[in-house]
Amino acid sequence: MSGCRKRCKREIMRFAQYLVRLITGSLHTDTVEDEMEMATVRHRPEALELLEAQSKFTKKELQILYRGFKNECPSGVVNEETFKEIYSQFFPQGDSTTYAHFLFNAFDTDHNGSVSFEDFVMGLSILLRGTVQEKLNWAFNLYDINKDGYITKEEMLDIMKAIYDMMGKCTYPVLKEDTPRQHVETFFQKMDKNKDGVVTIDEFIESCQKDENIMRSMQLFENVI
Questions:
Q1: Is pLDDT larger for residue 145 or for residue 173?
Q2: Which of 52, 101, 139, 157 holds its CA 20 to 30 A away from the CA of 95?
Q3: What digits encode the pLDDT tens for the residues 2-48?
Q4: What CA–CA distance (Å, rounded) separates 152 from 187?
């Protein structure tokens, strides 16, 4: 069991580093280099200690993440255009612009037009180590485009279309043009329990937790982060 936990921890850190590369461009992963440079990483210790308390990362993990983030983004923030440019490199077969916009807004929790290291860490903490409830809350926020506390059918369709646009021609079998709308119709009918035309966070979480098919479908956005 101990060996399994260690392997899981290594995989989590690999994924964390991948996400840092996604936003910042690159991150050195050589273990020896990491250990040698770790002793010189002393950026914003008060902020890192606060993040350690607020997130599910250790101080050492935060130092590694912060070094990569700060090295590539000296200003300490990433704006939306830079985020889109970097994200597009990972999905050259499609158009990731719209999905990157929605994803950027989900990370930009204070809606100031930029993603700070704190924004990034808190989102990453939920996606990698959060509870099912926390992850579903994050997913709801992604789909709730206008942040009014409800998901409309149009919002869900916008997200689905953006995902299919980003995946481009790499899906097999090739999807029909109306596939996103068909999927949304199915999801929305199951989620909108009281048929009032919107999905609340309670309806969203309850539906996802009870329906295995919806849970698998909702994981689609996680696979392309």
A1: 145
A2: 139
A3: 554 454 444 444 544 445 444 444 433 343 344 334 333 333 445 78
A4: 11
Angle between helices 132-143 and 201-210 (to 10 degrees): 120
Identify whether the C-beta of residue 151 lies closer than 8 Å to the C-beta of residue 140.
Answer: yes
Alpha carbon distance 199, 197 (integer Å)? 7
What pLDDT does 214 receive? 58
Q: What is the pLDDT of residues 58-82, one digit of tens each?
A: 988 898 888 877 776 778 888 899 8
Structure-derived torsion over alpha carbons of residues 143, 145, 146, 152, reported in degrees to the nearest 10: -50
- Does the structure show a pLDDT above 50 at 193? yes
DSSP string across 126-176:
HHHH--HHHHHHHHHHHH-TT-SS-EEHHHHHHHHHHHHHHHGGGSSSPPP
Distance CA 106, CA 202 (A): 19
CA distance between the termini of the chain: 29
| Angstrom distances, CA of residue 127 to CA of 77, 134, 207, 222, 225 | 20, 8, 19, 8, 10
Reported in sequence order, the residue ranges of the chain that DSSP labels E, i.e. its strands, are 77-79, 114-116, 151-152, 198-199
Place of tokens 């809350």: 137
Query: Rounded CA gap, 173 and 151, in Å?
Result: 29
Flag whether pLDDT at 209 surpasses 90: no
Interatomic CA distance for residues 8 and 29, integer angstroms: 17
82: helix, strand or coil: helix
Q: Reduce the DSSP state of residue 220 to 3 states and report it.
A: helix
